[in-house]
From TrEMBL:
InterPro entries noted in UniProt: GLUT, MFS_dom, MFS_sugar_transport-like, MFS_trans_sf, Sugar/inositol_transpt, Sugar_transporter_CS
Name used for this protein in its record: Major facilitator superfamily (MFS) profile domain-containing protein
Membrane topology: Multi-pass membrane protein
Compartment(s) where it occurs, according to its Swiss-Prot or TrEMBL record: Membrane
Source organism: Gossypium darwinii (Darwin's cotton)
CDD domains per record: MFS_GLUT_like (cd17315)
Length: 528
């Protein structure tokens, strides 16, 4: 899912893509039913069919065929779940916003707080965010196991709101560092929490498409922050306003989660079957209730009723295999070069006459957004595995195209245009698969009992690799040159496609319980 955050030596501003308390009532357990989408039938019928039924009575076979055709066109089975997923995806909007909010204003912040010209301190202000995100990711699994998704979302808004306000009011280096650390802490929790929540709440048929809303939210957050940051080029104090604005989505998220549902799978694990059945009935339909509860109980009987998993379980099969896949996917995603490509995208745009870093980043953001929209359609039609393989192969082709433009004697304008094409192709293909699929498929492969811990482990690996790539990238470019580093990124992309081909199983159209039982049976069969 996840676009890169930052590089840690900001020679130029990095064009990026990856104090009040809540009312106690916000944290109280609300009633089960919230957003009102009680649809006895989750499909709409065409108006022409309704008129026909009023004027004449067709035979049963014709009516059945007509209804089947209309059902395929007006399939709204995703609609009851959509508002709940949309509220959760607001967390990713905050993630994207906080990525982009440091894109230009870091220069103004450094000047006003007295560390201008010190690349180490400027890099520290940017990278302290990653340290907080790493800790937040590690802690999220335990919080979800104990508190459930909804309450964890609400508690997590506290560091997000406090961090934004402390950053906005900062008058010293230490204060801005504290604010960015708190924001990173909240973002780290959310990056783990959102995929878990969506995977457990969404109906099986629409889980992939709804899962891409998190990546779309990140893209919109980046674009919004870049547009909002335009006045920062003329107003040296505008960065404070941007941080104040960053606190508002946190309040909206805390309030919005009061009206969303809890994960029915978590409710079953804690023994609240009645609420779980009500949620399944409202979101998935009456026909799914008995089957879903039966699957939940079957998994619980195998895993046990203890909602608090242990970290040591990640060393046991099949959890160790899924943890390995989750960590490896994020290692490959980060070392496929998204950080570096985004860093150099502004320089490539400058070569073709786009001098504004904000405008260049906006082009990149819109490309990322377009790719995410395509992914929302393809995820449940083409499947996760095929999409991920195709995405990495497209990223590899894009990298080698840029290497060709750099190394071979071409007309200057043609070479620059080829580099632009390769950059936008890379970002688009990343947004189609490597970005959204990575965060979506890991909770799908994880067992119900260890899902939180595996996601925490996987995203902590993500943040470590993100930091290392940002730390080493400029040194590698200085030693080997841009073309060689980009060729390395292309090679890692090819390796990632091979890894996905041999290690991933397709999860499209299968419930989480079906996937878990299949993996468990495969492991037992392999042990014989």
């Amino acid at each position: 899912m996840w676009v890169a955050t930052v590089l840690h030596r900001p020679v130029v501003p990095v064009p990026l893509f990856f104090t009040s308390h809540l009312s106690p009532k916000v944290l109280l357990k609300p009633k089960t039913f919230r957003f009102g989408f009680l649809l006895p039938s989750l499909k709409l019928k065409a108006s022409a069919t309704k008129k026909q039924l009023q004027t004449q009575e067709p035979d049963n076979e014709d009516l059945h065929n007509q209804e089947k055709s209309d059902d395929q066109i007006f399939d709204l089975g995703w609609l009851p779940t959509f508002p709940h997923v949309l509220v959760a995806s607001m967390s990713n909007f905050l993630f994207g916003y906080h990525i982009g909010v440091m894109n230009g204003p870091i220069v103004s912040i450094a000047r006003e707080l007295g560390f201008e010209g010190d690349p180490i301190l400027e890099g520290l202000v940017v990278s302290i965010f990653i340290a907080g995100a790493f800790i937040g990711s590690l802690s999220c699994g335990s919080l979800v196991d104990k508190l459930g998704c909804r309450r964890t979302f609400q508690i997590d808004t506290i560091p997000l709101i406090l961090g934004a306000i402390v950053s906005a009011q900062a008058h010293s280096l230490n204060e801005i560092l504290l604010g960015r650390f708190l924001v990173g802490l909240g973002i780290g929790v959310n990056t783990v929490l959102v995929p878990i929540y969506i995977s457990e709440v969404a109906p099986t048929k629409y889980r992939g498409s709804l899962g891409t809303l998190s990546h779309i939210g990140t893209c919109l957050g980046i674009i919004f922050s870049l547009c909002l940051g335009i006045p920062a080029e003329h107003d040296p104090h505008w960065w404070r306003t941007m941080f104040y604005i960053a606190s508002m989505p946190g309040f909206l998220l805390a309030l919005g989660m009061q009206f969303t549902v809890e994960s029915p799978r978590w409710l079953c694990r804690v023994g609240d079957m009645k609420d779980a059945q009500t949620i399944i009935r409202n979101l998935w339909g009456d026909s799914e209730v008995d089957k879903a509860i039966e699957e939940f109980q079957s998994i619980i009987s195998n895993d046990g009723t203890d909602v608090n998993s242990r970290w040591m379980q990640l060393l046991e099969e099949p959890h160790s295999r899924v943890a390995f896949i989750g960590g490896a996917l994020f290692v490959l995603q980060q070392f496929a070069g998204i950080n570096g490509v985004l860093y150099f995208s502004s320089l490539i745009f400058q070569d073709v006459g786009i001098a504004s870093g904000a405008l260049a980043s906006l082009f990149v953001g819109l490309t990322n957004f377009a790719g995410a929209l395509c992914a929302s359609y393809l995820m449940d039609t083409q499947g996760r595995r095929r999409l991920l393989i195709g995405s990495y192969l497209g990223m590899a082709v894009s990298m080698f195209l840029i290497v060709f433009a750099i190394n071979y004697p071409l007309e200057e304008d043609f070479s620059h245009n080829l580099s632009i094409l390769g950059t936008l192709m890379y970002i688009f293909t990343f947004a189609i698969g490597a970005g959204p699929v990575t965060g979506l498929i890991i909770p799908e492969l994880s067992s119900s009992n260890t899902r939180g811990k595996i996601m925490s482990f996987s995203f902590s690996v993500h943040w470590v690799c993100n930091f290392l790539v940002g730390l080493l990238f400029l040194d590698l470019v200085e030693i080997f040159g841009v073309a060689s580093v980009y060729a390395g990124f292309g090679s890692v992309s090819v390796l990632s496609a091979i890894f996905a081909y041999y290690f991933l199983v397709e999860t499209k159209g299968r419930s989480l319980e079906e996937i878990e039982m299949s993996l468990n049976s495969n492991m037992r069969g392999g042990g014989r």
